[in-house]
Design a protein that fits this description.
Number of strands: 27
Oligomer: single chain
Number of helices: 14
Structural class: alpha/beta
Mean pLDDT: 88
């Protein structure tokens, strides 16, 4: 392009020029070379431009993990637009709110979703044009809309132009659009690939939704380094994941703890090792220290990266794998090109070792929430220099003398029990020391005596005989008295978000009687606590 700066779609263009015949995407039996991928994205960009897309227009991609979603992302960017991937599991009421906020010019979606999309868009002043991912397929197996080449030169753009709006759920449960410029996304991808030491010969397996920024960036990063991305629609079939690792000799494995828990209970993970995997990354929730030795056994050559981030700035920190044994509960140091600090409720930096709110400054910090200045003002505040705004994460951390970060709690996850401030993560880490515990969630429930009672909800491995009394005995052995749950419930499952995180709501608990394990019961009055900001710890 003749420019010294970089735009996100330049990643695909540059890799296509360097290695046109290399496989860029694998999806089931389908393989797309960089040349095919680049050609399809260029075709879509030409189509969008010739049909009215202007610089800065929004395009919603209401589709799952499939090649057409990846093509659409880069096609929209090349045409000068701004993309927003929305999980196809999102129902009409929420989709209507997203449409009302984004006012998309186009919607890319499977044909079968047409009635729902049209209904959700019915109240818009200008209904979007619908493009179908599975309609009129060409001989290549790619829908004709992506396979009809039109010579096209994209509009002049700068790296301060908007590239993506990533929708998350806020304190009201309504979707909030996190705005990311090309500069934001290029900075994040460059920083992450640098500390992961990604290479062009990497084969990265992604089963995380493209609507989730952790999954989205697997695509962005792979295109930047010229790697191969194996795209898996879901994590519905764990043994299939094992087979994909074997078949494609996967080198990079991005995971979340809920997926780790399921993989680690598979028989195959006990009987064999997977030496091609050279790194595993974790986010979305803290990495339980008890998982580390089991991961190291199954993936003997893998470096394990525990990370923390949130959609509003993509990634914040990573723990260098060589310090995993030394600092197993840390989420590491600030990633390259970011600075972090811990502040009190007045914004004053606290001494090392003290708990406060994490604040982030750097090139990856969002520009704000789309068309929501009030929510933006709560998160973005003046920084140390007059020209900058820094991100107040709302998450509580401490920092040791060496600058390593320790996640304590999300501000509204704190349980106030008998005057004590209880951090759920500390209890959950203790519960994960029990090998029979597959998933764990600790919540506070209203209580007349305690203010809030501590309730632990646990999903056990199949065949386990562990019961509530056994869990409480373990807690008494490993936790100080103030942290011991007043109630333990063995449950068949825990609700997950679309990104695979254990949902931090207690609607399914409140209004129920808490099993008596210490004379404490929940109030019958039902309340709601729903902060579901899409953070990826």
């Amino acid at each position: 392009m003749g420019n010294s700066f970089m735009l996100v779609h330049d990643f695909l263009r540059n890799s296509t020029q360097k290695t046109p015949d290399k496989t860029a995407l694998i999806f089931g039996t389908q393989r797309l070379s960089y040349a095919q991928f680049g050609h399809a994205a260029q075709a879509l960009a030409g189509f969008l431009s010739s049909n009215g897309l202007e610089r800065g227009d929004r395009v919603v991609i209401y589709a799952g993990n499939q090649p057409e979603t990846a093509i659409s992302i880069f096609g929209v960017l090349q045409a000068g637009g701004c993309f927003s991937v929305v999980n196809p599991g999102v129902r009409e009421a929420k989709l209507r709110k997203i449409f009302a906020n984004a006012e998309p010019r186009f919607v890319v979606t499977p044909k079968e979703a047409e009635p729902l999309v049209e209904s959700a868009a019915a109240e818009l002043a200008q209904p979007p044009v619908l493009l179908y991912t599975d309609y009129d397929r060409a001989e290549t197996g790619i829908p004709a809309i992506f396979d009809c080449f039109r010579p096209f030169q994209g509009p002049r753009m700068i790296d301060d132009d908007l590239a993506a709006i990533i929708y998350t759920s806020g304190s009201t449960g309504d979707p909030k659009g996190v705005t990311m410029t090309h500069r934001n996304m290029v900075a994040a991808s460059t920083s992450i690939t640098s500390y992961l030491e990604n290479r062009s010969d990497d084969v990265i397996l992604n089963m995380l939704p493209f609507s989730f920024d952790y999954g989205l960036y697997q695509l962005i990063m792979a295109m930047q380094i010229g790697a191969t991305l194996v795209v898996e629609p879901t994590f519905a079939f764990p043994y299939q994941i094992i087979e994909l690792i074997r078949k494609h000799e996967v080198t990079g494995l991005p995971l979340v703890p809920t997926i780790m828990a399921i993989l680690l209970q598979l028989e195959a993970m006990e009987k064999e090792t997977f030496p091609t995997v050279r790194y595993i990354s974790n986010t979305a929730a803290p990495l339980p220290p008890a998982y580390v030795p089991r991961l190291q056994k199954a993936f003997p050559k893998a470096r394990i990266f525990s990370m923390y981030g949130l959609t509003e700035c993509k990634r914040v920190s990573y723990l260098p794998p060589e310090h995993l044994d030394e600092k197993p509960s840390s989420v590491g140091i600030a990633m390259p090109n970011l600075e972090v600090m811990i502040v009190d409720d007045k914004g004053v930096e606290v001494p090392r070792g003290k708990v406060g709110e994490l604040v982030v400054r750097g090139a990856t910090v969002m520009r704000g929430y789309w068309r929501d200045p009030e929510a933006t003002a709560r998160r973005l505040k003046p920084g140390k220099y007059p020209w900058e705004q820094v991100l107040h994460t709302g998450d509580l951390f401490s920092m040791d003398d060496e600058g390593y970060l320790y996640f304590v709690a999300r501000t509204d996850d704190i349980i106030k029990c008998r005057g004590e401030r209880v951090h759920p993560k500390e209890i959950e880490d203790a519960l994960y020391l029990l090998e029979d515990v597959l998933h764990a969630r600790v919540v506070g429930v209203p209580d007349e005596l305690c203010g809030q009672a501590i309730r632990a909800e646990i999903v056990l491995r199949e065949g386990s005989t562990l019961d509530e009394k056994g869990v409480l005995a373990h807690c008494r052995q490993h936790l100080e008295p103030a942290l011991i749950p007043q109630a333990v419930a063995i449950v068949p499952s825990l609700s997950l978000t679309d990104s695979g995180k254990i949902r931090r709501t207690v609607d399914d608990v409140l209004g129920q009687h808490v099993p008596d394990s210490g004379g404490v019961a929940a109030k019958s009055k039902k309340t709601r606590r729903t902060r579901e900001k899409e953070q990826d710890i």
